[in-house]
């Protein structure tokens, strides 16, 4: 397929199969790479849609490579006479986020990219009165590599193996959708198209970096499979298998009664236990997976703890989670119907699953427990209560009986509460100061000097806190004391969700 009409017709046909009508606004994610260049060109010359290009500069590569990428996208927009919207991430920010959250650079960049694209789509919707679809250039080769990686990473048959043709990026109403019309197009077809149309593009230097699993699969495993089965189009065969597997999952999904899906209300999902238990095991898992995905907020949350809990209360074995999986003080208070009791709960990945005789519910747990010592990460705006109990530091969300004596802000999530480390310093009165020295000056308590928790946000250490209040805070951070509540051994921090000004925008 080299003639432009062929690729344009294939893309338009794929979009029509996904009920994307001609005249729809499409926001085409264009990285400057060959695949997205081909997609943007084919969609524009088709004349069937209102095309806007969107470019996200991740701030990862060196400056010269980033300039070349921007130049390629700019030239394409000028050649096609279509609008271009660009968002630039501050250099090093994605590396910092990946390091703080313990995620891969590739995964973090993808999350940031989709968040930027969603914001652009929302901006366009305010101007035009309709939310455009985000279109990406994932092709059959990407699909093949993804299926292989998911198959060997322990993916459950209940989960899709392949890249979905379309999916919502958020639970907002109306949602922003991403759609991928090239999933049945081979990379060779895209290469031929770009060459025939003499389109500019840039080779991503990270494609040769073998530290990425996808690059190793592409360079080693895929060619080996193609040599092993020379008479078979292995990528198409594997893609058909993934499609059939998805149809089986969809069929089971359609058989689940409406009431068994439960309902989302007031920041939590709840379903009658009898409805959930009556389902076959696969259907139960599908129902709960949907709720977990709803609250995971693009984070990788392992399903195994929740599956084990399902098996536990479905088989009649009640009781709480194993020690350490749901520490005291880390769960939000529940509004269970009067007369019911909590029989058990499991907390993992920032989510809590709780069950009783009649109801099962899932809700976000703002505080995620670390594996050693005490270490909590708070991803959202919240009120975080830190208490001293029998010499231990416990973090959680406040209850009615907790003190509400201190407000500290602006503190921007993600926020980490951790023990003090040797060498920790804080900017105090415009001067970096060693925290250990400050503690010696501000408190006589050896327990406080040894165990006082450190509050740290994306800008660095915010405060050192103790039962009696903040011992020291970063300049620019304010705190107030509420004196109407009697003294207790705790402090509550107000964590605000504010814009950080990290994004530079150009239209």
Please name the defining characteristics of this protein.
36% helix, six-stranded antiparallel beta sheet, 3 domains, 25 strands, 507 residues, 23% strand, alpha+beta, disordered C terminus
Biggest beta sheet summary: 7 strands, mixed
**CATH C-level of the largest domain:** Alpha Beta
Name the strands of the widest sheet in spatial order: 5-6-4-1-2-3-25
Overall outline: globular
**H/I helix tally:** 14
Radius of gyration: 26 Å
**Oligomeric form:** single chain
What portion of the residues fall into strands of 2 or more residues? 15-25%
Would you kindly provide a written description of the structure presented here, covering whatever features stand out?
- With 507 residues, the protein is α+β, with helices and mostly antiparallel strands.
- It folds into 3 domains: 4-245, HUPs (Rossmann fold, 3-Layer(aba) Sandwich); 268-365, no CATH class; 376-497, no CATH class.
- The protein contains 14 helices and 25 strands.
- Helix 2 packs across helix 7 and helix 6 (140-151) crosses helix 9 (234-255).
- The protein is globular.
- Residues 319-334 and 497-507 have low confidence and may be disordered.
Give a topology summary.
Layout: H1 4-17, E1 25-29, H2 34-46, E2 50-57, H3 63-80, E3 84-89, H4 93-101, H5 105-128, E4 133-135, H6 140-151, E5 166-168, E6 177-179, H7 187-197, H8 213-228, H9 234-255, E7 263-265, E8 268-272, H10 273-277, H11 281-296, H12 304-314, E9 344-348, E10 351-355, E11 359-364, E12 367-369, E13 376-378, E14 382-389, E15 392-396, E16 406-409, E17 415-418, E18 425-428, E19 431-434, H13 435-442, H14 446-451, E20 454-457, E21 460-466, E22 469-473, E23 478-481, E24 490-495, E25 503-506
Parallel strand pairs: 1-2, 1-4, 2-3, 4-6
Antiparallel strand pairs: 3-25, 5-6, 7-8, 8-11, 9-10, 10-11, 12-13, 13-17, 14-15, 14-24, 16-23, 17-20, 18-19, 20-21, 21-22
């Amino acid at each position: 397929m080299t003639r432009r009409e062929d690729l344009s017709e294939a893309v338009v046909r794929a979009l029509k199969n996904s009920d994307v009508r001609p005249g729809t606004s499409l926001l085409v994610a264009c990285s400057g790479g060959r695949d997205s260049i081909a997609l943007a060109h084919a969609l524009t010359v088709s004349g069937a849609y209102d095309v806007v290009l969107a470019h996200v500069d991740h701030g990862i590569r060196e400056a010269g490579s980033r300039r070349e990428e921007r130049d390629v996208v700019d030239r394409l927009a000028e050649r096609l006479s279509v609008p271009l919207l660009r968002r630039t991430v501050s250099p090093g920010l994605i590396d910092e986020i990946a390091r703080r959250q313990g995620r891969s650079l590739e995964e973090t960049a993808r999350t940031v990219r989709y968040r930027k694209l969603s914001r652009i789509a929302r901006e366009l919707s305010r101007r035009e009165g309709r939310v455009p679809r985000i279109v990406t250039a994932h092709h059959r080769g990407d699909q093949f590599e993804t299926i292989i990686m998911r198959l060997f990473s322990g993916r459950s048959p209940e989960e899709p193996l392949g890249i979905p043709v379309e999916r919502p990026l958020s639970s907002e109403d109306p949602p922003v959708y991403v759609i991928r019309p090239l999933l049945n197009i081979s990379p060779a077809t895209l290469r031929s198209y770009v060459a025939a149309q003499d389109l500019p593009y840039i080779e991503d230097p990270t494609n040769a970096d073998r530290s990425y699993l996808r690059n190793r699969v592409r360079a080693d495993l895929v060619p080996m499979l193609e040599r092993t089965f020379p008479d078979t189009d292995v990528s198409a065969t594997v893609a058909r298998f993934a499609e059939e597997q998805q149809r089986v999952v969809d069929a089971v999904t359609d058989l689940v009664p409406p009431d068994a899906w439960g309902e989302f209300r007031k920041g939590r999902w709840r379903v009658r236990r009898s409805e959930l238990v009556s389902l076959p095991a696969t259907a139960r898992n599908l129902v709960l997976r949907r709720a977990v995905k709803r609250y995971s907020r693009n984070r990788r949350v392992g399903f195994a703890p929740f599956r084990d809990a399902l098996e536990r209360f479905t088989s009649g074995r009640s009781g709480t989670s194993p020690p350490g999986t749901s520490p005291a003080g880390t769960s939000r208070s529940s509004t269970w119907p009067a007369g019911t009791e909590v029989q058990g709960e499991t907390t993992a990945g920032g989510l809590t699953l709780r069950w009783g005789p009649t109801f099962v519910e899932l809700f976000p747990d703002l505080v995620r427990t670390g594996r050693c010592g005490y270490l909590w990460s708070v991803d959202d705006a919240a009120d975080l209560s830190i208490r001293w109990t029998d010499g231990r530091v416990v973090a959680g969300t406040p209850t009615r009986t907790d003190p509400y004596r201190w407000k500290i802000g602006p503190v921007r999530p993600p926020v980490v509460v951790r023990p003090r480390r040797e060498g920790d310093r804080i900017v105090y009165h415009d001067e970096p100061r060693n925290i250990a020295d400050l503690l010696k000056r501000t408190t006589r308590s050896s327990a406080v000097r040894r165990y006082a928790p450190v509050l740290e946000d994306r800008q660095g250490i915010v405060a050192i806190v103790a039962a009696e209040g903040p011992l020291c805070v970063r300049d620019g951070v304010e705190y107030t004391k509420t004196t109407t509540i009697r003294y207790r051994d705790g402090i509550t921090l107000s964590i605000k969700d504010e814009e950080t000004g990290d994004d530079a925008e150009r239209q």
